[in-house]
Amino acid sequence: MSKARRTDRKDRAAAGIAALVAGYQAMEGIDKIGRIVMALDATRAAASAILNGLEGLGGGITQQAKAELTRQVRQRISEQEDRVLQGLVDASPVRLLTSTRAEMEAKAVAAVLDGTPWLTAQTVGKQQNPDATNPHAVTSRWKKEGKVFSIERAGQTFYPMYIFDEFGNPIPEVAEVLKVFHGYTPFRIASWFESTNSMLRGKRPREVLATAPSAVFEAARDHAVGAVHG
After folding, report:
1. What is the mean pLDDT of residues 168-184?
2. Closest by CA position to 148, among listed 166, 122, 172
3. What average pLDDT does this structure show over 115-144?
4. How far apart are CA 177 and CA 221, in angstroms?
5. What is the pLDDT of residue 74?
6. Domain boundaries along the sequence of the chain
């Protein structure tokens, strides 16, 4: 195939795409988002038709020339698709966080942070072993073993006091609860411990963890199952 014919095919392909998009942009009686979605569909349909046509070209064009033409068409289609998608984003509403919602979220965070004393790794380590030369090591090991959880605040790590017994060791059932809540963020776990629970007669899990750890585990399992199936 001559260079002139290859150029003509490429120009006609590009012109076809531009004409399709221009036609949909000129549509009346359809809302802006509707027109954008239709333009996106048209772009993708044109892409499929043009690329299938290129694949079906016979021996009149070399493989190298066909590959280059295909690349250029794909590039033009990709650029147009990006513009159409950006138009869809620009035309779509954004759900903003209202001041009332922000206040509710702030109160929820404050309730978790204020509900219990929070301990540093050094405090936990010294409580468990006053003679420890590296008090941070014990909490690091417990976290790796899945026995405790912590939250990060302003660059510091804190552990809730309710997950430890009077000797400074993790309450065994905490590990079972953490297994149930696998994949939950630490703050989400802390929020669950701070929320009243009907299976615990309206008490918070942190309030009864030391005295009824098995009940807390059952409540956690019920919560997790409800979150999956409810």
Report:
1. 96
2. 172
3. 91
4. 8
5. 75
6. 3-91, 99-229
Q: Which helix (H) or strand (E) holds 201?
A: none
> Residue range 130-138: average pLDDT?
86
Both tokens assigned to 193: 């411990």
Torsion 180-184-190-194 (CA) sign = negative
Grouping H, G, I as helix, E, B as strand and the rest as coil, residue 82 is: helix
Angular region, 96: left φ>0, alpha ψ -120 to 50, beta rest: beta
> Per-residue pLDDT averaged across 102-106, rounded?
86
Prediction pTM value = 0.59
Torsion of the alpha carbons at 193, 144, 146 and 162, rounded to the nearest 10? -40
CA atoms within 13 A on the CB side of 117: 6
d(CA 193, CA 180): 13
Residues belonging to the chain: 230
Torsion of CA 226, 228, 229, 230, to 10 degrees: 50
The Cα 228–Cα 203 span in angstroms is 23
CA distance 24 to 43: 10
Q: How far apart are CA 169 and CA 174, in angstroms?
A: 11
* 81 burial type by CB count under 10 A (0-12 exposed, 13-18 middle, 19+ buried): middle
Which residue is listed with tokens 């690329």? Answer: 51
